[in-house]
TrEMBL record, chain A:
GO terms of molecular function: peptide transmembrane transporter activity
Solute-binding protein family domain segment(s): 91-498
SUPFAM superfamilies referenced in this protein's UniProt entry, alphabetically: Periplasmic binding protein-like II
The protein's name in its UniProt record: Unannotated protein
GO biological process: peptide transport
Species whose genome carries this gene: freshwater metagenome
Cited Pfam families: SBP_bac_5
InterPro entries, A to Z: SBP_5 (IPR039424), SBP_5_dom (IPR000914), TAT_signal (IPR006311)
From TrEMBL, chain B:
Membrane topology category: Multi-pass membrane protein
Protein name stated in the entry: Unannotated protein
Residues that span the membrane, as ranges: 9-27, 113-137, 149-173, 193-213, 253-281, 301-327
This protein's GO CC annotations: plasma membrane
Single biological process term from Gene Ontology: transmembrane transport
Keywords for the protein's UniProt record, in alphabetical order: Cell membrane, Membrane, Transmembrane, Transmembrane helix, Transport
Organism the protein comes from: freshwater metagenome
One Pfam match: BPD_transp_1_N
Domain spans labelled ABC transmembrane type-1: 111-320
Main subcellular location: membrane
PANTHER family to which the protein is assigned, alphabetical: INNER MEMBRANE ABC TRANSPORTER, OLIGOPEPTIDE TRANSPORT SYSTEM PERMEASE PROTEIN APPB
Lineage per the UniProt record: unclassified sequences, metagenomes, ecological metagenomes
Automatic annotation (TrEMBL), chain C:
SUPFAM superfamilies according to UniProt: P-loop containing nucleoside triphosphate hydrolases
GO biological process: peptide transport
Keyword ATP-binding (UniProt): yes
Domain ABC transporter residue range list: 5-259
GO CC entries: plasma membrane
Compartments reported by the entry: Cell membrane
PANTHER family: DIPEPTIDE TRANSPORT ATP-BINDING PROTEIN DPPD, OLIGOPEPTIDE TRANSPORT ATP-BINDING PROTEIN APPD
Protein name stated in the entry: Unannotated protein
Organism the protein comes from: freshwater metagenome
Family matches, as InterPro entries: AAA+_ATPase, ABC_Ni/Peptide_Import, ABC_transporter-like_ATP-bd, ABC_transporter-like_CS, Oligopep_ABC_C, P-loop_NTPase
Length: 585, 334, 343
């Protein structure tokens, strides 16, 4: 897999798909939970990862963990329906009595707690717990991995450096402002969020564990991650990094207050730090029949497994939520020239790169947008790029050369940067074995078109932290992104606007300001259909600018043991509907 | 002798202080900023500085080192961990915000795993290596010698990651010897020796194969070399039986250098057997350090594992030297 | 009456890649209790191998041996060449002992000298470790190590070369052997120490009435201690006689050459030291004819180039004086210009 969902958490958050998710997916897998589903047994998961990026709900931001722990451990105000097909992408009330009541042009959102909801210690979940949980996201010095929507949306003043005046529950600063922005009713059961601007999709955010309750008296700060308090049908019995996470039934959880969760297995054990070869062998020889591989197989083993007809009911190959991309540094002195960016796009040997990672069948297909089709109405095919008659998946160095030739006069600086042997393009890559292999292919393809290119390797895992620094040094880089929920509002602003992760940004270009204005307008648009059309326009514009030189719509494979029942795709996460999993008797 | 040992102890302490200081300087030179690394998506300069303070990196390297040394003896408080400050008691090796625990606690959990792996492997490779070496030397040129030469060749040329994977895939999993879910489970060898054996036998054997091969070759050539010594002829001239000569005279001299090598190999492994631990899913020091270096850049863990690893080597050097003085009287008086 | 040790037609050879090394070729000699036999020769003459074979210290897998070496023990004679190895081992250190050239390397560096002596003692005596150490101290005292009791626990490296050779002797004699083979015992030592050690061997021999075989390349050493001498060349005995016969009426050109090459006080001023020209022969594929012929100054004196075509037998030239040379005693006297009875 190109993107390790566990380690690149800050970069890659995961999508929800809409009702009419365009199904490029080749979904197989078992039929939805049938009558055979039965209680009992131990459900195993196993992974090469040694620890979870986060168990602390405030820090939790990977789709898999939100789906997994959102099902078993943590309840949130809203939740995606734990159902197959498009129904799974709809929200439903979970801790709350409904999916939220917006008012004041969606600037105010109100939720009331369901009666009888409790913590694992039996105490009732209150509005104060919700308010406290929501506040922790502001303590950025303690929790740095979770989503930051709360900070940018809540009606709390912003300081000169762009940070919130409220610094979280561990400091006194800005507490009054927070108390004003988030209020509890007298009976401590209804919570109201007051936002700066219209956020029509706040209810989606309310399905994130980071918005869920935390009991202040149980908060151990940084160490809370090792043993967060459960609200769901299971609680943590043991969490030993590099060993295992064991969940057992939460006897304080009541079915009456949670009609949705089925809680079939008695125990859930997640085996951590399993060697990749061992893990693959376990899958191929069905050594843990009641277990699920959380990682996917290594490419060669993956192909062997998927060619094995006896495994037909123990696998699926589906479209994942990710778009992997190559993004150009649009700043002056780098690739601030459309023709050069275009030349890079046409010179690229996409075929070899995709083959290296598992091929079109398992890795992914060429995309024409940074919004993926499974985002539903926000996706529309773009014109140009891969639909350009000059596009060849294996690269078109001749055409790239003619574009470069035009750039010679149109933008001599960028041309010089790209072709002068003394300068040349710098390609950022994390220093890993796979990346080294792919860098060779990239270099070869670009050299063929007349580019001068050098790959710059940086320590793996430092990308996010040093984005600003790398931007001054490199010309393009590869990464991946997935929407946080089924709205391009979690994609386009983050990637191309003023969001977290815009590597391509150049505020000095004339096109930038009008683009941002349009993005902001789209963000606050209450008419969902109108909003979708606005996103279409914006993605076409960005693609025409070749800010993203290349996009790939990724695929994902899952494999599991022969005694696992109820494996069905949960669209929002491209994961299993964990709620349906059971052990075949 | 006491004077010698105390002098050496003093040197060892000084050396360890210098090693720790240089570790701090080396990691300061690496162009990775841990304060940025843990910065959230909406990262501001103020936040980076706050992180730097929280991680204790907002002071000079010398000061960082001094605080670390103090923490070793007095325990230490780490700020900004939430409701209250985080305290790690002495000996504090730092606090890992990535693993949400005191480094000393993390290491105390990992160390018994690495220690028992090392001891198990050590016993295996010493007994296999030395006895094969003796056999080969005694049956020089015969089948047993050739067979052991083949073993040496295979053992030394196959890297651990290959033997390890072969052991796991083609022995352990193939014959269902260990449930893959139990692979790498820690069992206390004193309370549950059989359980320990089940999960540790194969990793120990994997490690032992490579080392045993080296020790076989070493033992064999040493015995053959010592056998030609005049004092072995003297022993024979006394009328001693070949068994006694081998046991008392040849082996004593032939194995003395092995003490040095074995001691250092042992100490080296105590720092963590990265590959073997990885293959068998053992959460020892090796896996701990490799993850800290390559994945999370968890500086307190990197510093602590590096320091502890080098401390093992430095201290083992001292032990080996003292032991050697007991073995070889010529060293004792000089 | 047979002697204590009788070596008969003993041949020792080692097959090598280059050919068969005939290190000791059809060697016969004898030595009796109270008697000292010196075996003399240049290095590579094969003077040590036959004795190592008698001790059973040769490498059994790489050595071919024929002939016999009889020890006339009180409970009957035994041929140590054909006897089982284990039986010979039980004689080593008890009936026959050996000391070696280099006392620096012949002692085990890791054990105290007392320990090493006691080990040899306890092999053939019942007694505690303490008894062994006491016995070791006694022996060290006997061989002239000062304050022996304090030094039993010292290690070999704490002794000087001469002292170490004394330790070796103490160890060799701890079980009162009847035969002591001393293989170049003084070669590695200072000249002053050399004669002390030789004196010690002599004294001890008298005290214990031992048979002693002294292997040396140094005729000066021989003159001091030996009763009779075997001169070896090219793996064969070339001359075999009593000490006076060898020194004053030597019958073999090689022996004569050896004698001429040592400085002698009695001939100081009138005598020039003469080295034997040429190199000792290789022990692989010896030429037909006399092995010494290529270096012999008298080769032309023998008629019909006999020296290079035929190997002379070891024949008794005068009573009890054997020589392997075609020349007769009279011819030798003439050729060397030696006065037959110069004494």
């Amino acid at each position: 897999m190109s993107v390790n969902k566990l380690t690149s958490r800050r970069w890659v958050s995961i999508t929800a798909a809409t009702a009419l998710a365009v199904s490029v997916a080749m979904v197989s897998g078992a039929s939805p939970a049938s009558a055979a589903a039965a209680k009992g047994g131990t459900l195993y998961f196993y992974t090469n990862s040694e620890q979870f990026p986060a168990l602390d709900p405030t820090n939790m931001y990977t789709g898999r963990d939100i789906g997994l722990f959102g099902t078993y451990l943590f309840r949130t105000l809203t939740s995606y329906k734990m159902e197959a097909g498009s129904a799974g992408t709809e929200l439903t009330a979970d801790l709350a009595t409904n999916t939220g009541v917006p008012s004041n042009k969606a600037k105010t959102w109100k939720y009331t707690l369901r009666p009888g909801v409790t913590w694992e210690d039996g105490s009732a979940i209150t509005c104060a717990d919700l308010k406290y949980g929501f506040s922790r996201a502001f303590a950025l010095d303690v929790f740095n991995a979770g989503p930051t929507y709360a900070i940018s949306w809540l009606d709390i003043p912003t300081l000169a450096d762009g940070s919130s005046a409220y610094k979280g529950p561990y400091k006194k600063t800005g507490k009054a402002a927070y108390d004003k922005a988030v209020t509890c009713s007298k009976d401590n059961r209804t919570i109201t969020y007051n936002l700066k601007r219209s956020v029509p999709d706040f209810n989606y955010f309310a399905s994130y564990p980071t918005t869920g309750p935390i009991k202040a008296s149980a908060d151990t700060g940084d160490k809370y991650d090792l043993h967060p308090m459960a609200t769901g049908p299971y609680k943590i019995k043991k969490y030993a990094i590099n060993d295992e996470l064991t969940l057992v039934r939460n006897d304080k959880w009541k079915k009456s207050s949670d009609p949705m969760r089925k809680a079939y297995p008695d125990d859930i054990v997640i085996k951590l730090g399993m060697n990749e070869d061992v893990r693959d062998e376990v899958d191929m020889t069905d050594q843990i029949p009641n277990g699920i591989n959380m990682d996917g197989l290594q490419p060669l083993n993956n192909i062997a497994y998927f060619n094995d007809p006896t495994k037909a009911k123990q696998r699926w190959n589906i479209v994942d939520p990710f778009v992997t991309y190559l993004t150009a540094n649009n700043s002056a002195g780098h690739l601030d020239c459309l023709l050069v960016r275009k030349a890079v796009f046409f010179a690229y040997d996409n075929q070899s790169l995709i083959d290296l990672s598992g091929g079109l069948k398992y890795y992914g297909v060429m995309g024409d947008n940074i919004v993926k089709p499974n985002l539903g109405m926000d996706y529309a095919p773009t014109k140009g790029n891969i639909h350009d008659p000059n596009f060849k998946i294996g690269g078109n160095p001749e055409y790239a050369k003619t574009l470069l030739e035009q750039a010679k006069t149109a933008c001599p600086d960028a041309y010089d940067r790209a072709t002068n042997p003394a300068k040349g393009l710098k390609y950022y890559r994390a220093d890993t074995a796979t990346n080294k292999k792919s860098a060779v292919l990239v270099e070869a393809a670009l050299k063929k078109a007349g580019f001068v290119i050098e790959t710059v390797y940086k320590p793996a895992g430092t990308y996010n932290a040093n984005l600003v620094e790398y931007k001054s040094q490199t010309d393009f880089l590869a990464s991946g992104w997935a929407a946080d929920w089924a709205n391009a509002s979690t994609v386009i602003p983050e990637m191309w606007g003023n969001g977290c992760c815009n590597y391509t940004k150049n505020e000095k270009t004339p096109e930038y300001a009008p683009f941002i204005a349009k993005v902001n307008k789209a963000l606050s648009e209450l008419d969902r259909k109108k909003q979708a059309t606005m996103w279409h326009e914006l993605s076409q514009y960005g693609m025409d600018q070749y800010w993203y030189i290349r996009t790939v719509f990724g695929k994902d494979q899952a494999t599991w043991g022969s005694k696992i029942g109820g494996m069905t795709e949960w669209k929002p996460f491209s994961q299993a509907i964990y709620n349906d999993l059971y052990i075949k008797q | 002798m006491l004077k010698y040992i105390s002098r050496r102890l003093l040197y060892t302490v000084i050396l360890l202080l210098l090693v720790s200081l240089s570790i701090f300087y080396i990691f300061d030179l690496i162009p990775v900023d841990p304060a940025r690394l843990v910065c959230s998506k909406s990262c501001t300069t103020a936040l980076v500085e706050a992180n730097r303070h929280r991680l204790g990196l907002d002071v000079s390297v010398l000061e960082q080192w001094w605080r670390f040394i103090q923490g070793l003896f007095q325990g230490r408080t780490y700020g900004e961990g939430g409701i209250k400050d985080i305290y790690c008691g002495a000996p504090s090796f730092g606090y890992s915000f990535n693993r949400h625990a005191c480094v000393s606690t993390i290491m105390a959990e990992a160390f018994p795993i690495t220690l028992s792996l090392t001891i198990g492997a050590f016993i295996m490779w010493l007994s296999i290596g030395i006895s094969l070496g003796i056999l080969a030397a005694r049956k020089k040129g015969k089948f047993a010698d050739r067979a052991s030469t083949a073993f040496v060749l295979i053992g030394t040329s196959l890297p651990t990651f290959i033997t390890g994977i072969m052991v796991v895939l083609f022995i352990v999993l193939k014959f269902h010897l260990v449930n893959p879910l139990e692979l790498g489970d820690w069992q206390n060898p004193f309370t549950n020796p059989l359980g320990w054996l089940r999960t540790f036998f194969f990793p120990c054997a994997t490690l032992a194969i490579a080392y045993a091969a080296t020790y076989t070759r070493f033992t064999r050539s040493n015995i053959l070399e010592i056998s030609t010594e005049d004092y072995i002829r003297t022993a024979r001239a006394k009328g001693l039986s070949e068994k006694v000569i081998l046991r008392k005279h040849t082996l004593r001299a032939a194995l003395a250098p092995i003490v040095t090598i074995a001691g250092l190999d042992f100490a080296g492994l105590l720092g963590g057997a990265i590959i073997t631990e990885g293959i068998f899913g053992l959460s020892g020091l090796g896996k701990l350090s490799i993850k800290a270096v390559t994945q999370t850049y968890d500086l307190p863990i990197i510093v602590a594992t590096t320091l502890v690893g080098s401390a093992f080597v430095v201290i083992m050097n001292l032990i080996v030297d003292v032991a050697y003085a007991y073995i070889d009287p010529r060293v004792r008086t000089t | 009456m047979s002697k204590f040790l009788e070596v008969k037609n003993l041949s020792v050879s080692f097959p090598t890649e280059d050919g068969l090394v005939k290190a000791s070729n059809d060697v016969s000699y004898s030595v009796d209790l109270g008697e000292t036999l010196a075996i003399v020769g240049e290095s590579g003459s094969g003077k040590s191998v036959s004795n190592l074979a008698i001790m059973g210290l040769h490498n059994p897998t790489m050595t071919q041996i024929s002939g016999s070496a009889w020890l006339n023990l009180p409970d009957g004679p035994i041929d140590v060449i054909s006897a089982p190895a284990e039986k010979v081992r039980r004689l080593r250190g008890k009936v026959m002992s050996m000391i070696f050239q280099d006392p620096m390397s012949a002692l085990h560096p890791y054990y105290s000298v007392g320990n090493q002596i006691a080990e040899a003692w306890s092999l053939y005596n019942d007694g505690s470790k303490r008894d062994g150490m006491a016995r070791a101290a006694e022996m060290l005292d006997l061989v002239g190590i000062p304050s022996a009791k304090d030094r039993v626990k010292d290690f070999p490296h704490q002794f000087s070369g001469g002292m170490r050779q004394r330790v070796m002797i103490a160890m060799a004699l701890v079980n009162n052997p009847s035969l002591l083979i001393a293989d170049e015992p003084t070669t590695a030592l200072d000249v002053t120490v050399q004669s002390q050690i030789l004196k010690l061997i002599q004294e001890i021999q008298k005290e214990f009435n031992m048979a002693v075989i002294l292997i040396t390349h140094d005729l000066g050493v021989v003159a001091e201690v030996a009763d009779k001498v075997c001169v070896m060349y090219g793996g064969k005995i070339v001359e075999n006689a009593g000490i006076d016969e060898i020194f004053y009426r030597s019958q073999h050109p090689y022996t004569i050459g050896l004698l001429d090459s040592i400085p002698r006080v009695d001939k100081l001023g009138s005598h020039r030291l003469k080295a034997i020209p040429g190199q000792p022969p290789s022990l692989i594929g010896l030429p037909t004819g006399c092995a010494f012929a290529p270096r012999c100054e008298f080769v032309s004196q023998v008629a019909g180039s006999l020296c290079t075509t035929q190997n002379p037998d070891l024949s008794e030239k005068t009573t009890g004086h054997f020589s392997r040379c075609f020349l007769e005693p009279e011819q030798i006297v003439t050729l060397t210009g030696r006065k037959a009875s110069a004494k």
